[in-house]
Amino acid sequence: MTVSHAVLATVLCAVTLVSSAPNAHPLSPVTLPVEAFSPLIAQKVLATANTLLSPAQYPQYTDRIEGTWQWFSPDTWTTGFFPSTLYALNARSTLCSKDSGNLKETDWLELGRTWSAAEVPLETHTGVGHDVGFLSYPFMDELVVNTHNATAVTAVNNFAKELAARFSPIVGCTRSWDSADPTDFQVIIDNMMNLQVLFASADLNGNDTLRQIAISHARKTAINHIRPDGGSFHVVDYNSTTGKVIDRRTSQGYANNSTWSRGQAWGIYGFANSSSFSCQVFTIIHMPRYCAVYKQTNLSEFLQVSRHMAAYFLDHLPKDGIVPWDFNAPLSPPRPADTSAATIASMAFLLLAQQELAQQPTNTTGANLYVDAAVRLLQTTTALAWKPSWRSLLSNGTVNNPAQNNLTGIVYGTSVFF
User: Fold this and answer.
1) Cα Rg for the chain, rounded, in angstroms?
2) How many Cα atoms are found within 13 Å in the side-chain-facing hemisphere of 91?
3) Nearest-CA neighbor of 253 among 165, 348, 343, 189?
4) What is the pTM of this model?
5) Cβ atoms within 10 A of the Cβ of 161, count?
6) Cα atoms found within 13 Å of the Cα of residue 8, Cβ hemisphere only
7) Which SUPFAM superfamilies does this one have (predicted)?
């Protein structure tokens, strides 16, 4: 399964473990930032989890000054990230050999289940639309731990049903945002991340229609969202009656023809996850959820798109390695960074590395390139934005720059940093 951004929480310990294992993989050694193993990680997450013992609100982003979480209703697209982070710490506590920051003494699994409970009513009534995929993350995490957990199985199937109901065979995509005009069918690049719940449910119940919906959406996105240079449009508007493209534009980026960095990162990951990969390479990065929930699609066309988007991302990084909010935003006045885009891209590059190692023959050069890119992003991002005094791990996230919501900690940026 995928992005439960939480699964990548385990990568830091896993990289260390496999580095000392002879013949485990053909990758070159890497040096992760020391903060990646800080006891503050477990301490901060535990402090947040203990804030509400019966969660009725969920953290999304912090204020700019003190780094205090701002809390939102469960019926919000980001709700699944924090409970998924708790599941990630459960996996990390097994992988990491050293006990730090209450990592091993805490029952992360029980906390993950507690923090997922408020999402159950959202399975049949939610206002997040296409983002039910993000809501499903902790339930897909649960299926790694217990494949027969009825609550998790029901949640994944219900969320997939909700997303599938937004599919138009005329357009070939699932609708992202709703519009007052029923003929305006809006699709955003972020939606590539929600397709995983369709794959997961298809594997649980054998409904291949869900898989075909996901594949159709990915193919249409590759055609209409991705530019020849590998950059991406944030939003594509279709006519729901004819299926034709009406407009290509942005909502959170600098301009209609610019590339919003977080959208680019979502796309790299989403397309890489839609291509084929082998469970045998999971000794490199501990992502059991993939093997537990997904079957291979064997569609290398999506791997090519992910590579193309990754090349754009890396080619447009500034010399300091700090990911800007938008790659095409002017340098003056100084454009804000987006550490959430950086951490999501890091996760995407690690997944791409797995894909390259699964190729026949193994593409060691490509795998090393992506692992190196992921580590460099973690290093530059940590150097810029590691905040010991904040509730989030990182600062300098950009939620929505046109709305002047930047310089914050973000729950999905913190979750993916693991």
Assistant:
1) 20
2) 28
3) 189
4) 0.91
5) 18
6) 27
7) Six-hairpin glycosidases
Cβ atoms of 365 and 292 closer than 8 Å: no
Supply 70's token pair: 């701002």
Taking residue 349's Cβ as centre, other Cβ atoms within 10 Å add up to 29
And the tokens for 29? 């050694």
Angstrom distance (rounded) from CA 65 to CA 354? 38
Task: Give me the domain span that covers residue 53.
Answer: 5-417
Q: How many residues does the chain have?
A: 418
Q: Which residue type is seen at 199?
A: F
* Inter-CA distances, 6 with 98, 137, 357, 412, Å: 20, 8, 22, 9
Q: How far is CA 324 from CA 189, 230, 256, 342, 418, in A?
A: 18, 17, 17, 9, 21
Question: How many CB atoms are closer than 10 A to CB 52?
Answer: 15
> What is the rounded distance in angstroms from the CA atom of residue 208 to the CA atom of residue 212?
6
Provide the CATH number for the domain around residue 255.
1.50.10.10
**Alpha carbons 318 and 180: distance in angstroms, whole number:** 40
Question: Are 27 and 284 spatial neighbours (Cβ–Cβ below 8 Å)?
Answer: yes
Nearest one of 275, 48, 288 to 144, comparing CA atoms: 288
Q: Which two tokens stand for residue 93?
A: 């506590």
Under DSSP, is residue 185 helix (H, G, I), strand (E, B) or coil? strand
Q: Which two tokens stand for residue 335?
A: 């454009």
For residue 157, which amino acid is it? N
Residue-level pLDDT, tens digit, the chain, 418 residues: 333 433 344 444 544 433 434 445 678 888 999 999 899 999 999 999 999 888 999 999 999 999 999 999 999 999 999 999 999 999 989 887 665 667 888 999 999 999 999 999 999 889 999 999 999 999 999 999 999 999 999 999 999 999 999 999 999 999 999 999 999 999 999 999 999 999 999 999 999 999 999 999 999 999 999 999 999 999 999 999 999 999 999 999 999 999 999 999 999 999 998 875 333 333 334 343 433 222 346 688 999 999 999 999 999 999 999 999 999 999 999 999 999 999 999 999 999 999 899 888 999 999 999 999 999 999 999 999 999 999 999 999 999 999 999 999 999 998 887 6
